[in-house]
């Protein structure tokens, strides 16, 4: 039954036959402060879900209070750890796999920062979550980044350091790994090739325009990654639902960047 539960959840997370994934996140407030778009959380999550993402990640309190009308329609990923503005290189456990089961989540999400003094504790925490999740048939997503205090800032996007992070997550049993994008599909392909788990990217906030975000999405798919998980760019975009649909058109519709931009412009003027 545990195996059946795991398989059922994975099918809901990745329902399309193309094997690709498009996740959204609204788990930023404890980590970064309450930004624009998350001060009106209910409207933001409603607009995101209207675009049809594969899943959305949030903390348990917001899931309990704001996600009910979307339950069973948009898969929920429960965020189980968080860093903070005061401890940016350490993810603290704040929820359990059992709570994910109770909330009807289709995956749990665990943050992990490597390449720093606190790496041992965080890898141990990630391993513990993976063990419990396997026992309960729960898929594990890890947001793992090489941004510990042993690295300079410009090394956080080096493909070798990113591969170190994704490989560590894979070897601990993570099913879907979210990490930094290297900046080009050629180097990110080396990360994907060296990681025996599914890899997706974060980092839409590094883009300044919709076209940059859509191009990055296409480049990531060309590298062999399964998809993307975006948060801040879409949260703060003036018309969230059209932006979600435009990204989805590339991931699941096979649209080019030009076609996705045309779709975005059309939807924004409806």
UniProtKB/TrEMBL annotation:
InterPro entries registered for this protein in UniProt: Aldolase_TIM (IPR013785), DeoC/FbaB/LacD_aldolase (IPR002915), DeoC/FbaB_aldolase (IPR050456), FbaB-like (IPR041720)
Positions of the catalytic residues: 145, 178
MF annotations from Gene Ontology: fructose-bisphosphate aldolase activity
Gene3D superfamilies linked: Aldolase class I
Protein name: Fructose-bisphosphate aldolase
